[in-house]
Amino acid sequence: MKETIKKLASYVPPTPTETIAKRYGLSRVAKLSANENPYGTSPKVAAAVIEAVKQFGVGNWYPDGNATSLREMIAQKLDVKAANIVFGCGLDEIISLVSRVFLEKDDEVLVAEPTFSEYGLNAQIEGATVKSVPVDARTGANDLNGFLKNITLSTKLIWLCNPNNPTGAYNDPNALRDFVAKVPKDILVLIDEAYIDFVRSTQPASAVMLLKEFDNVAILRTFSKIYGLAGYRVGYIIMDDQRARYLQTARLPYNLNTLSQVAAETAFEDQQFVAEVAAKNARERDKWEAFLKQHQVFYYPSQANFIFFKVADADQLAARFLKKGYQVRTGFGKDWLRVTIGLPEDNFGMQQIMADYLNNNIN
């Protein structure tokens, strides 16, 4: 066994909502801890999956290992080469694959602090050293100058979650272009755009155009968030010719099952649903920020589908939320909570609970 594995803590999934409901005698629990889409997915997806089951039977045939149809759709929409897309069983598999292929023992990886933990975890599994660069204390965005200052001869990968999870803060494409131009060309800059469709501050929001300018840039996307397909596990990375070939060599040959491909293709076609979800999320996000501002709670302005704020005794507030049927995310640091932006009635309910909590604590 790898010594690095022995030193790491395993992932602990959130408590199932059914368990919470039974524990507190609740008829419903709003799961607002994993940044899933509370509006579901395109209604066209269920019909397409049911039809696929009829067509393909009980699943005795292997899926299309190339995900040909989905690949062509994405390549056309994003104006990238189809061969440069590598699919994974969610972005979790892509992150693991990138670390396995491009890292060796004692390499260095730069990540923000805080950010998505899988970047660092998978680097450590490969024996690499993880160096954390604190986010901008005022905005919560990736500190691009801080990353540049921490580059050494051992640096191999730089992970930028944009918008960043858990802060929700966003670096625009021009800032990213200036940053990448200063990064040595042998360092791979990975820009994780899992939440890019929620961005309203800048259009176009994606840094995908940088792929044509820099060979050492890769863009990651997922169907788990705005498309509402978290249970189908579909993610992908777009990168230069050579690195894409390396990943394809190491990728499992049938990692996207047939129904996942059908669901992703159907969801991708329904961009009207995507636009509607983005608009609903933006309206509710504005309400959350107005609430936090009104109650003088420090938060990072978000461009994602969650809000990250600091409040005294955050674990106590999270427990109060849970007893009322709202599951949120803790564990990002003392007094910090991350709340997925839910349905309007859930957001309002949580704000009422939080207002009562804040008033009682102050008084």
In brief, what are we looking at here?
This protein is an alpha/beta fold. The chain has helices spanning 3-6, 17-24, 43-56, 68-78, 90-102, 117-125, 144-149, 173-182, 241-250, 258-269, 271-294, 314-323, 344-362, and strands spanning 30-31, 85-88, 108-113, 129-134, 155-161, 188-192, 217-222, 235-238, 298-300, 306-310, 326-327, 336-340.
What can you tell me about this protein's structure?
Helix 3 (43-56) runs antiparallel to helix 10 (258-269). The chain folds into two domains: 3-41 and 272-362, Aspartate Aminotransferase, domain 1 (Alpha-Beta Complex); 44-269, 3-Layer(aba) Sandwich (Aspartate Aminotransferase, domain 2), CATH 3.40.640.10. The protein is 41% helix and 15% strand. The N and C termini lie far apart (55 Å). The protein is an alpha/beta fold. The protein contains 13 helices and twelve strands.
Low-pLDDT segments, ≥5 res: none
How far is the first residue's CA from the last residue's CA?
55 Å
CATH class of the largest domain: Alpha Beta
Mind describing the biggest β-sheet?
A: 7 strands, mixed
The arrangement of helices and strands along the chain is: HHEHHEHEHEHEHEEEHHHEEHEEH
Helix vs. strand class: alpha/beta
Q: What is the number of E strands?
A: 12
Which outline best applies?
Answer: globular
**Strands of the biggest beta sheet: in what spatial order?**
2-8-7-6-5-3-4
- Number of contiguous helices: 13
State the helical fraction: 40-55%
CATH homologous superfamily heading of the largest domain = Type I PLP-dependent aspartate aminotransferase-like (Major domain)
Q: Can you give the mean pLDDT?
A: 95
Strand % is 15-25%
Architecture of the largest domain, according to CATH? 3-Layer(aba) Sandwich
What's the gyration radius in Å?
21 Å
Say what the CATH topology of the largest domain is: Aspartate Aminotransferase, domain 2
- Quaternary state of this entry equals single chain
The tally of structural domains comes to 2
